[in-house]
Amino acid sequence: MLAMCAAPIGAFVGGWLATTYDIRTPLYAADGLLLAMTAVTATMTSNRRVEAALRAAAPAGGPDHPASKEPARESALGLM
Questions:
Q1: Do residues 67 and 74 lie in contact, with contact meaning Cβ atoms separated by under 8 Å?
Q2: What residues contact residue 17 under an 8 Å CB cut-off, 6+ apart?
Q3: Mean of the pLDDT values across residues 46-56?
Q4: pLDDT value at position 66?
Q5: Is a pLDDT exceeding 60 seen at residue 69?
Q6: How far apart are CA 67 and CA 56, in angstroms?
Q7: Alpha carbon distance 52, 58 (integer Å)
Q8: In Å, how far from its chain's centre is CA 8?
Q9: Which of 18-22, 30-34, 59-63 has the lowest mean pLDDT?
Q10: Are 68 and 61 in contact (CB under 8 A)?
């Protein structure tokens, strides 16, 4: 929904940039914006953060909780 609402604004700004400067300017601006957003997104996500979020979201004692998997694995290996 956000992208659909931002599309007319982007079209207006892109048309203004093309009219004022050059036809390639909106493409360069979009490229810079895409690279900036990629850098921001890359700093927000990491494997550690994803794993921590999954652990926090899993119910304690449930089949998806990491603590509930450990005893089953140890008993399967005969370590208990």
A1: no
A2: 25, 26, 29
A3: 86
A4: 57
A5: no
A6: 12
A7: 10
A8: 24
A9: 59-63
A10: yes
On whether the pTM is more than 0.70, the answer is no
The amino acid that residue 60 corresponds to is A
Cβ atoms of residues 42 and 54 within 8 Å: no
Residue 71 neighbours by CB under 8 Å, 6+ apart: 80
Q: What is the DSSP string of 6-70?
A: HHHHHHHHHHHHHHHT-TTHHHHHHHHHHHHHHHHHHHH--HHHHHHHHHHHSPTTSTT-HHHHH
Residue with token string 């899993």: 58
The residue assigned the tokens 């550690």 is: 48
What pLDDT score was predicted for residue 12? 96
Residue 21 contacts residue 13 (beta carbons within 8 Å) = no
Nearest to 16 by CA among 33, 6, 29: 29
